[in-house]
Design goal:
heterodimer; A: 91 residues; mainly alpha; Non-ribosomal Peptide Synthetase Peptidyl Carrier Protein, Chain A; globular; B: 415 residues; alpha/beta; Aspartate Aminotransferase, domain 1; Aspartate Aminotransferase, domain 2; 2 domains; 7-stranded mixed beta sheet; 16 helices; 14 strands; 16% strand
Chain lengths: 91, 415
C-alpha cells in the first residue's frame, strides 16, 4: 500500500471509530463503513456536527470553513475524508 | 389556477407514500369532554362508543374539572372572549400578569412570560437570547419542539447521548471557548417517561459555567412532593435557569405555555421573543382557568398523590402480569412490544375491549422499539385501572407475550 493510501485508510478508521464511539450503542449491532448514510439515515444527529468538525480540525490541523461543513458533505465518511483532505495541513 | 395538476399529483403521491409506510395519522372524533371515560367515533361514521381513556396528557384530571370550568366561565364573563391583540399592544390584562406571578411562585423562579403554547415558548427560548458566540448542548432524545427551537436560533449546536452525564461533561469541557453554554433537556421524556438527572446536570453546569434549560411539560403540576416539577423531584428548585412548560397537559389541558426563570432573560423574551411579539395573547378564559388550577395545586397535593398511587398500582399489576415495562415512577408507562404491527394490532384489540390506547413505532420512537404508551391520570379510579389491566392481560394472552423477554418477543414477531 502506498503511503498516501495508507494515510487515507488510517483516516477512515479514525473517523469511523469516532462515529462509533460518539453515536452507536455498544449493543446496537449496527455496522458502518465509509459509504453508510449518517445524517440522512438518522444515525447521526446534525446538531453534533460541531463537535465532529472540532475533532477533525484538531486531529488533522484542517482549517475547514464552517460553511463547507454541510449536512450533505458530512453524510458519509467518504465525504468527510474528501473535505479534510482539501484543507489538512499535516500532510 | 395556480394549484396545478402537477402540484396536486405531487402531494397526493406524498400522502400515498405515508399511507404505504404506515405513517398516515387518522384523527378520532371524541363526542364527550376530556375525561377518564370518553365517547369515541372510530372509524369515521361509526357509532360513538364508551372507552376508558389511557392516552391523554390529562395527568391531574383537571381538563373537565368543575372548578376549572367554573373559573373559565368567570374569565369569559369578567374579561371577555378574545383580546384581538398581541400582548404588548393591548393584549395584556391584569389576569395575565397575575398568572405569570403565580406561575413564578409555583415553579420557584424569578419571573415568567406566557406564550400561546410551549412549542412557541421553545421557539423563543434560544432564538431570542443566544447568538453564534454561544452553544446549545441538547440531549439526543429531546422533544421535537426543543429541537426546532434550537434550529431557529443562530447559536451553535451540539448534542449528548441520552441521559449520559459523562458525555455531557465531555461536551461542556470541549466548548469552554464559547461565550455561553446552555444545556437543554426535557425534564421527563415523553416516549419513555424517563427523568433527566437534573441534580447532576446542575452540578455539571456549575462546574463548567453553563446555563440549564428544562422543558417540563410532562412534569409541571405533579412531579416532586408538591408537584412543582422535575426540578423539585431532583431537589434543584432555584437552580434551573430556564423552564419551559405547558398549560396544555396537567394544568387544565386547554392550551398556552410559558418560559419561567431568570428575570433578565424573561425580560429579553418580552422584548425580543418572536412568538410573543407576533402572535395573539392567550385568551382570558384560559388565563382565568389556569390561575384557578395553580390555586388548587397550591392548596392540596391530593390530585398528584392520587396520580402517584395510580401509577404505582398500574405499573405493579402490569409487571406482575408479565408485561415488559420500562421501569420508572412516571405516569407515562411504555409497554414494550418492539414490533410495529404487534403494537398496532394490540391497540386495536384493546379498543375493542373498551380501552383507548395508541401504538407508537418508528419514526416516533427508534426502530425496533415499538410500544403501547399508557398515560395515567388522577381522573382514573381503581376500577378503571382494573378494567384496563384485565383487558391488557386478555389481549396479552392472545398474542402470547406475557412473561416473555424482549428477545422472546422479537424472536416471535420480529423487530
Amino acid at each position: 500500500m502506498k503511503e498516501g493510501e495508507k494515510m487515507e485508510e488510517d483516516m477512515k478508521e479514525v473517523i469511523l471509530d469516532y462515529i462509533r464511539e460518539e453515536y452507536l450503542d455498544e449493543d446496537s449491532g449496527i455496522e458502518i463503513d465509509e459509504n453508510t448514510k449518517l445524517i440522512s439515515s438518522g444515525l447521526v444527529d446534525s446538531f453534533s456536527m460541531v463537535s465532529l468538525l472540532m475533532f477533525l480540525r484538531q486531529k488533522y490541523k484542517a482549517n475547514i470553513p464552517d460553511e463547507e461543513a454541510t449536512a450533505e458533505v458530512f453524510d458519509t465518511v467518504s465525504g468527510i475524508i474528501e473535505l479534510v483532505n482539501k484543507y489538512r495541513q499535516d500532510k | 389556477m395556480v394549484f396545478s395538476r402537477k402540484a396536486r399529483e405531487f402531494f397526493a403521491n406524498e400522502l400515498n407514500d405515508l399511507k404505504e409506510q404506515g405513517l398516515f395519522k387518522e384523527e378520532r372524533y371524541i363526542h364527550s369532554p376530556q375525561s377518564a371515560d370518553i365517547e369515541v367515533e372510530f372509524p369515521e361514521g361509526a357509532e360513538p362508543r364508551k372507552v376508558i381513556n389511557l392516552c391523554a396528557n390529562n395527568y391531574l384530571g383537571l381538563s373537565s374539572h368543575p372548578e376549572v370550568m367554573k373559573a373559565a366561565r368567570e374569565g369569559l364573563d369578567k374579561r371577555g372572549y378574545g383580546m384581538s391583540s398581541v400582548r404588548f399592544i393591548c393584549g395584556t390584562q391584569d389576569i395575565h400578569r397575575e398568572l405569570e406571578k403565580k406561575l413564578s411562585e409555583f415553579l420557584g423562579t424569578e419571573d415568567t412570560i406566557l406564550f400561546s403554547s410551549c412549542m412557541d415558548a421553545n421557539a423563543a427560548v434560544f432564538e431570542a437570547a443566544f447568538t453564534k458566540d454561544d452553544i446549545i448542548i441538547s440531549d439526543r432524545l429531546n422533544h421535537a419542539s426543543i429541537i426546532d427551537g434550537i434550529r431557529l436560533a443562530s447559536a451553535q449546536q451540539d448534542s449528548y447521548k441520552h441521559l449520559d452525564m459523562k458525555h455531557l461533561e465531555k461536551k461542556l469541557d470541549m466548548h469552554q471557548d464559547k461565550r455561553f453554554r446552555v444545556i437543554a433537556t426535557d425534564g421527563v421524556f415523553s416516549m419513555d417517561g424517563d427523568i433527566a438527572p437534573l441534580d447532576k446536570i446542575c452540578d455539571l453546569a456549575e462546574k463548567y459555567d453553563a446555563m440549564v434549560m428544562v422543558d417540563d411539560s410532562h412534569a409541571t403540576g405533579f412531579m416532586g412532593k408538591t408537584g412543582r416539577g422535575t426540578h423539585e423531584h431532583c431537589g434543584v428548585v432555584g437552580r434551573i435557569d430556564l423552564i419551559t412548560t405547558t398549560l396544555g397537559k396537567a394544568l387544565g389541558g386547554a392550551s398556552g405555555g410559558c418560559i419561567s426563570g431568570r428575570k433578565e432573560l424573561i425580560e429579553i423574551y418580552r422584548q425580543k421573543g418572536r412568538p410573543y411579539l407576533f402572535s395573539n395573547t392567550v385568551p382570558p378564559v384560559i388565563i382565568n382557568a389556569a390561575s384557578r388550577v395553580i390555586d388548587i395545586l397550591s392548596e392540596t397535593t391530593e390530585r398528584r398523590d392520587k396520580l402517584e398511587w395510580n401509577t404505582k398500582y398500574f405499573r405493579e399489576k402490569m409487571t406482575e402480569a408479565g408485561f415488559d415495562i420500562r421501569p420508572g415512577v412516571h405516569p407515562i408507562v411504555p409497554i414494550m412490544l418492539y414490533n410495529a404491527q404487534l403494537a398496532q394490532n394490540m391497540a386495536k384489540d384493546l379498543y375493542d375491549e373498551g380501552i383507548y390506547v395508541i401504538g407508537f413505532f418508528f419514526p416516533v420512537v427508534p426502530k425496533g422499539q415499538a410500544r403501547i404508551r399508557v398515560q395515567l391520570s388522577a381522573a382514573h379510579e381503581k376500577e378503571h385501572l382494573d378494567k384496563a389491566i384485565e383487558a391488557f392481560i386478555k389481549v396479552g394472552k392472545k398474542y402470547d407475550i406475557l412473561g416473555k423477554s424482549r428477545e422472546e418477543i422479537i424472536e416471535k414477531y420480529g423487530m
